[in-house]
């Protein structure tokens, strides 16, 4: 069931369109990530949903209630929406307890108990209740900000790059903890981020914005494996894009004939493979299978060590010249990294994706 509906949202700043006809539907209880490069309009869209900005056109509906229609809008404090900004925006002069309780009316029955429940929910030690924000770590401050937003029992939670200021290890831990917490609470959530890995791991729905327009929306698996175009493919991770000739369930390309979801399409097209779909194995230059005519062999031109996952650049060997095509980037385990100038055999797992245009 659709819980949040965004229809034809447009927003201009002077002569520049920040958003142009955005349509999105967020199911109840879902976690949606809105991603895009800087200036794509993702934060503007979040602020319009929150009520901090007014759209020039379009409609926002939450659980059947129209929150905004053109310039007419319900004030932010009456929308029942929780909001966690990038820096947490805690009040430095208030204690943890007072920060969490800030949105609750004074004298509200059970107010103190609600604060304690929120501390437990975000897994903060109750002994921290009297501390000030500067006495907390970055991760603890974000938990307090989340507790403050949840204390009002919002219908919708908006997260504006809340993990970006944290170090890598803490960011991953916090992301998983927040996702688990919101899932358990059944709160519909929208996360805005420029980090594609964060979006793919946090959300069950992803929307990609590009220059104020919606490029594609769907599940993380759909967008990663079946992006609509090469720009979306490259934004969501490393991508190998090759020209190909399509046949019945296959594509002939620089890697030879590979399996592909061709449907009824035939002829010239562009296909995409993710680096993890390619496997490398040692091959001798004297091997007949590694002759210049064999398209699925190559030479390692660079190795980038990355710990668990490393990047290996491979130039394909073909019937004309060894380096006539751009090098391919392959993901490899650090346990069996090939050396530079090694000849390798390349095999492909799974199917190639065929771009629509």
UniProtKB/TrEMBL annotation:
PROSITE patterns: ABC_TRANSPORTER_1, ABC_TRANSPORTER_2. SUPFAM superfamilies: MOP-like (SSF50331), P-loop containing nucleoside triphosphate hydrolases (SSF52540). InterPro entries: AAA+_ATPase, ABC_SmlMolc_Importer, ABC_transporter-like_ATP-bd, ABC_transporter-like_CS, ABC_transpr_FbpC, Mo/tungstate-bd_C_term_dom, P-loop_NTPase, Transp-assoc_OB_typ2. The keyword Translocase applies. One of its GO terms (molecular function) is ATP binding. GO terms for biological process: quaternary ammonium group transport. It comes from the Bacteria. One of its GO terms (cellular component) is ATP-binding cassette (ABC) transporter complex. Keywords: ATP-binding, Cell inner membrane, Cell membrane, Ion transport, Iron, Iron transport, Membrane, Nucleotide-binding, Translocase, Transport. Signal peptide: none annotated. Residues 4-236 form the ABC transporter domain. Pfam families: ABC_tran, TOBE_2. This is ABC transporter ATP-binding protein. It comes from Azospirillum doebereinerae.
């Amino acid at each position: 069931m659709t819980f949040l509906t965004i229809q034809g949202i447009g927003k201009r700043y002077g002569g520049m369109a920040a958003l142009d006809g955005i349509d999105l539907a967020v199911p109840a209880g879902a976690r949606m990530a809105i991603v895009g490069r800087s200036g794509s309009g993702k934060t503007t869209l979040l602020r319009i949903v929150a009520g901090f900005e007014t759209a020039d056109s379009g409609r926002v509906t939450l659980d059947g209630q129209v929150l905004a229609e053109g310039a007419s809008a319900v004030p932010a404090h009456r929308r029942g929406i929780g909001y966690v900004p990038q820096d947490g925006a805690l009040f430095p002069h208030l204690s943890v307890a007072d920060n969490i309780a800030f949105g609750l009316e004074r004298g509200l029955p059970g107010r103190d108990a609600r604060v304690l429940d929120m501390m437990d929910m975000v897994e903060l030690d109750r002994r921290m209740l009297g501390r000030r924000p500067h006495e907390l770590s970055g991760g603890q401050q974000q938990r307090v900000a989340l507790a403050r937003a949840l204390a009002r029992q919002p219908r919708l939670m908006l997260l504006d790059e809340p993990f970006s200021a944290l170090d890598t290890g803490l960011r991953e831990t916090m992301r998983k903890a927040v996702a688990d917490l919101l899932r358990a609470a059944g709160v519909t959530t929208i996360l805005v981020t420029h980090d594609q890995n964060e979006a793919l791991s946090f959300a069950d729905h992803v929307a990609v914005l590009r220059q104020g327009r919606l490029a594609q929306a769907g599940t993380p698996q759909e967008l990663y494996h079946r992006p609509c175009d090469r720009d979306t493919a490259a934004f969501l991770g490393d991508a190998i894009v090759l020209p190909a000739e399509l046949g019945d369930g296959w594509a002939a390309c620089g890697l030879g004939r590979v399996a592909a979801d061709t449907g009824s399409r035939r002829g010239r097209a562009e296909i995409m493979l993710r680096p993890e779909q390619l496997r490398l194995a040692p091959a001798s230059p004297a091997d007949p299978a590694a002759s210049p005519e064999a398209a699925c062999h190559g030479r390692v031109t660079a190795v980038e060590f990355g710990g668990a996952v490393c990047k290996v650049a491979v130039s394909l060997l073909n019937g004309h010249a060894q380096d006539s095509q751009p090098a391919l980037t392959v993901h490899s385990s650090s346990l069996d990294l090939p050396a530079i100038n090694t000849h390798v055999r390349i095999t492909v797992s799974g199917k190639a994706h065929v771009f629509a245009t």
